[in-house]
């Protein structure tokens, strides 16, 4: 991880919807190749923040640079330098594996030769060569998610945003999915991931936790457990939620 190169820099990033503040002056930085966990309960502001960082929603106030580009004036350049994957699955189920890879390769601006090489690498790495002409809709969910992630980083983006990527898949497949994440991070791709599985939070280099639109804590899993005097990230999350409920 190249700690000196910041690929996400957010400064007092705020989004209001009328009188409601969805994200309230959140400030943080993420380094190249870092696996950064972005956690919080439903309604905490995670999705709103991610939409701003992806260039899909303009902030009400504050500033941010994503992959070196301004969040207000360079959103199209941001979109070209990121990948995105959601829990709801990001590929076309009525196209084959090969057709999906070729389609998204074209969307990402890869040449025909690059798409050919990337396609061969991808299907071999995932062990899908014999399945390559099958419709994506026929694949088990775990394989769909691994394929979706691999396509999201097909163009070697500087950052890939993962929104609850392993929801609904079994523990073994989740662990295999995280192997793909580690491989991408080793290639210098920054991973920005939301998850509600606290064991997955342990896999991140650093974790931030949103509570009611604010960024309440940000540190390594080990440091957070130490500062809260607990043994698991589940307990950290529980203590924060309990404090928020009491209004501490």
From TrEMBL:
The residues covered by the ABC transporter domain are 8-237
Give the InterPro entries listed for this entry.
AAA+_ATPase, ABC_transporter-like_ATP-bd, P-loop_NTPase
Q: In its keyword annotation, does this UniProt entry include ATP-binding?
A: yes
Q: Which domain of life is it from?
A: Bacteria
Mention any Pfam family matching this sequence. ABC_tran
Keyword list, A-Z = ATP-binding, Nucleotide-binding
Q: Which GO terms describe its molecular function?
A: ATP binding
What PANTHER family does the entry give? ABC TRANSPORTER G FAMILY MEMBER 20 ISOFORM X1, ATP-BINDING CASSETTE, SUB-FAMILY H, MEMBER 1
Q: What is this protein called?
A: ABC-2 type transport system ATP-binding protein
What is the originating organism of this protein? Dyadobacter arcticus
């Amino acid at each position: 991880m190249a700690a000196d190169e910041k690929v996400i820099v957010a400064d007092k990033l705020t989004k209001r919807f009328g009188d409601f503040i969805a994200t309230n002056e959140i400030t943080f930085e993420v380094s190249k190749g870092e696996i950064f966990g972005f956690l919080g309960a439903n309604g905490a502001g995670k999705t709103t923040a991610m939409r701003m960082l992806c260039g899909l929603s303009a902030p009400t106030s504050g500033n941010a640079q994503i992959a070196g580009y301004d969040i207000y004036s360079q959103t199209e350049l941001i979109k070209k330098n990121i990948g995105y994957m959601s829990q709801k699955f990001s590929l076309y189920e009525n196209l084959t594996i090969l057709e999906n890879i070729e389609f998204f390769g074209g969307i990402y601006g890869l040449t025909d030769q690059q798409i050919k090489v990337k396609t061969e690498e991808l299907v071999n790495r995932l062990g899908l060569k014999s399945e390559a002409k099958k419709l994506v809709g026929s694949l088990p969910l775990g394989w769909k998610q691994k394929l979706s992630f691999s396509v999201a980083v097909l163009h070697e983006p500087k950052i890939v945003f993962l929104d609850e990527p392993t929801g609904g898949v079994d523990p073994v497949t989740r662990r295999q999915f995280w192997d793909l994440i580690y491989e991408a991070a080793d290639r210098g791709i920054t991973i920005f991931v939301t998850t509600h599985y606290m064991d997955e939070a342990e896999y991140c280099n650093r974790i931030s936790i949103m509570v009611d639109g604010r960024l309440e804590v940000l540190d390594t899993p080990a440091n957070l457990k130490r500062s809260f005097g607990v043994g698991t990230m589940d307990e950290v999350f529980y203590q924060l939620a309990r404090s928020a409920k009491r209004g501490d």
